[in-house]
C-alpha cells in the first residue's frame, strides 16, 4: 500500500513493492528524475502529479518574507504554486497544468523554495 505524501526518495528508490507512478509532463529533460530524487524534504501529492512540502518558520513575519521572495520569482518564471499560510507555516505544492504533470519547472521552483527557506531561516527543531 502506498502512503500519501511519501517523501520523494522513498518513492523513487523503493526497494520493495511497486513504486507509485508519478505523472510527468510531456517532453521533460533527462535530468528531471535525478534532480527530483535530491528533493528529500518534498513529498509526492496524492494525485501523483505534483510535489509538496510544509515549511515551518520561526514567525509569521519570516513565513511571509519567504512567500514574498518566492512570489517574485513566480512572476519572473511564469510558474505559480498552490500554497497555504497559517501563522508560521507555509505549505506549497508545485504541479504543471499545461502539459499536465510534474515538470522540470516544478523541480526548479522546489529547489528555489529550499534555497529561500534556508536564507530566511527555518524554525530550529527542538
TrEMBL record:
PANTHER family: PTERIN-4-ALPHA-CARBINOLAMINE DEHYDRATASE. It comes from Massariosphaeria phaeospora. It is an enzyme of class 4 (lyase). GO terms for biological process: tetrahydrobiopterin biosynthetic process. Keywords: Lyase. This is 4a-hydroxytetrahydrobiopterin dehydratase. It catalyses: (4aS,6R)-4a-hydroxy-L-erythro-5,6,7,8-tetrahydrobiopterin = (6R)-L-erythro-6,7-dihydrobiopterin + H2O. GO terms for molecular function: 4-alpha-hydroxytetrahydrobiopterin dehydratase activity.
Amino acid at each position: 500500500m502506498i502512503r500519501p505524501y511519501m517523501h520523494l526518495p522513498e518513492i523513487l528508490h523503493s526497494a520493495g513493492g511497486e513504486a507509485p507512478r508519478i505523472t510527468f509532463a510531456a517532453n521533460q529533460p533527462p535530468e528531471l528524475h535525478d534532480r527530483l530524487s535530491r528533493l528529500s524534504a518534498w513529498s509526492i501529492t496524492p494525485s501523483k502529479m505534483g510535489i509538496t512540502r510544509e515549511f515551518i518558520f520561526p514567525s509569521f513575519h519570516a513565513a511571509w518574507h519567504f512567500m514574498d521572495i518566492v512570489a517574485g520569482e513566480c512572476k519572473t518564471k511564469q510558474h505559480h504554486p498552490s500554497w497555504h499560510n497559517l501563522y508560521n507555516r507555509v505549505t506549497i505544492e508545485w504541479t504543471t497544468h499545461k502539459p499536465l504533470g510534474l515538470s522540470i519547472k516544478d523541480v526548479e521552483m522546489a529547489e528555489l523554495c529550499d534555497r529561500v527557506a534556508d536564507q530566511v531561516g527555518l524554525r530550529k527543531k527542538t
